[in-house]
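Students often ask why inverse folding is considered easier than folding. One informal answer: many sequences map to the same fold, so there is more than one right answer. In these notes we will look at a single instance of the problem. The structure comes first.
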């Protein structure tokens, strides 16, 4: 397998690169600045400058892009659209590092976690734009996408346990009533998904066991 990780220098991206490299996967880090990951190869290029030719060699592309300043949040939508445009009608899969705020809290899928009364208000703008990005992604039938939401508590410095639970569109907890996962365990699930080739045109979620 040949795997590319967009925004590989970020916390989620670098964790995914490490997991993939440790498993012997051929990984290319796509970064704007100098590569700081363990990837065997790197492509120094802005996400918005990527072309279909740049992405054609890969079996799968992981989109680990993140923007957190309020004025930059719309880039979640524009960057995902650009990647979809470049991967349209391609065999290359697109796996997106998503958010937890768009997970549904009711069986009818009418309410999202971000709309819960106790959802952190400071996280709402980011969750809202990522939810909108997911809705736009659902319309891209010509792209072989999979959207991977983490647990509600996404722990950058959490321990790698080597275990995770694969869930669907709804918010869920483990046997201890927790919705949490470390970046390292999330990376295991993301790489498993890249290797399995399943869940095309689906959103899945990963929580710690």
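Output (designed amino acids):
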């Amino acid at each position: 397998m040949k795997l590319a990780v967009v925004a590989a220098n970020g916390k989620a991206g670098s964790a995914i690169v490490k997991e993939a490299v440790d498993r012997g996967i051929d990984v290319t880090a796509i970064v704007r600045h100098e590569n700081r990951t363990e990837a065997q190869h790197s492509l120094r290029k802005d996400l918005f400058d990527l072309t279909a030719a740049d992405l054609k060699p890969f079996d799968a592309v992981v989109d680990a892009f993140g923007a957190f300043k309020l004025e930059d949040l719309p880039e979640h939508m524009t960057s995902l659209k650009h990647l979809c445009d470049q991967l349209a009608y391609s065999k290359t899969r697109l796996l997106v590092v998503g958010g937890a705020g768009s997970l549904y809290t009711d069986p009818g899928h009418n309410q999202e976690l971000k709309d819960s009364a106790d959802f952190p208000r400071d996280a709402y703008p980011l969750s809202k734009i990522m939810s909108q990005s997911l809705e736009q992604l659902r319309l891209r039938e010509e792209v072989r996408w999979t959207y991977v939401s983490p647990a509600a508590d996404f722990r950058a410095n959490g321990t790698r346990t080597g275990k995770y639970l694969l869930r669907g569109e709804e918010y869920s907890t483990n046997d201890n009533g927790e919705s949490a996962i470390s970046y390292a365990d999330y990376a295991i699930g993301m790489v498993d998904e890249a290797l399995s080739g399943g869940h095309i045109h689906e959103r899945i979620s990963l929580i710690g066991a």
